[in-house]
Each structure stands twice: as structure tokens, then as C-alpha cells.
Amino acid sequence: MADQTRIIKIDGMTCGGCVASVHTATADIDGLETITVDLADNLATVTFDDSKTSAEAIASAIDEAGFEATVANS
């Protein structure tokens, strides 16, 4: 299928360690191509194969790592 790029809002990040935790939480998601986490804006930009995963599934993995993640409206 096609790659999709979405923005995920992440509340609760306070430092570089939080950014690393987000990367760790999403590292094993099949279909996730790239994730760029912006600590200053509390956002992650994700690119993924929508036949393998979804922005909601990626946000859920971030939630499970202890953050409040929601998919921004496209």
C-alpha cells in the first residue's frame, strides 16, 4: 500500500530521555518507516505503511510507554 505521514501529539515529554522512550516504544512496530520526535512542540511525525499499521496503533504504543498520545487531525 501507500506510505502515510501523520502527526501525533504527545503530552508528558519533558526531556531527551522521554524522546528516547518514544523511539523505544515504537521501534518494533511493523510498517513504521520513520518517526521524528519534536520535544519542543510535543509532536511526532510518523511515516508508515498503512497496509501494516496505522497512526492510531503507533499512538497507542506511545500511550503504553506512559505518555498521552493522540493523532492530530489531518
Please give a structural write-up.
- The protein is α+β, with helices and mostly antiparallel strands and 74 residues long.
- The protein has a single domain (3-72), classed as Alpha-Beta Plaits, CATH 3.30.70.100.
- It is built from two helices and four strands; from the N terminus they run βαββαβ.
- The chain has a four-stranded antiparallel β-sheet, covered by helices on one side.
- A hairpin with a 4-residue loop joins β2 (32-38) and β3.
- α1 packs across α2 (55-64).
- It starts with a strand and ends with a strand.
- 22% of the residues are buried.
- The model has no long low-confidence stretch (mean pLDDT 95).
- Keywords: Metal-binding.
- Residues 4-70 form the HMA domain.
- It comes from Psychrobacter nivimaris.
- GO terms for molecular function: metal ion binding.
- This is Periplasmic mercuric ion binding protein.
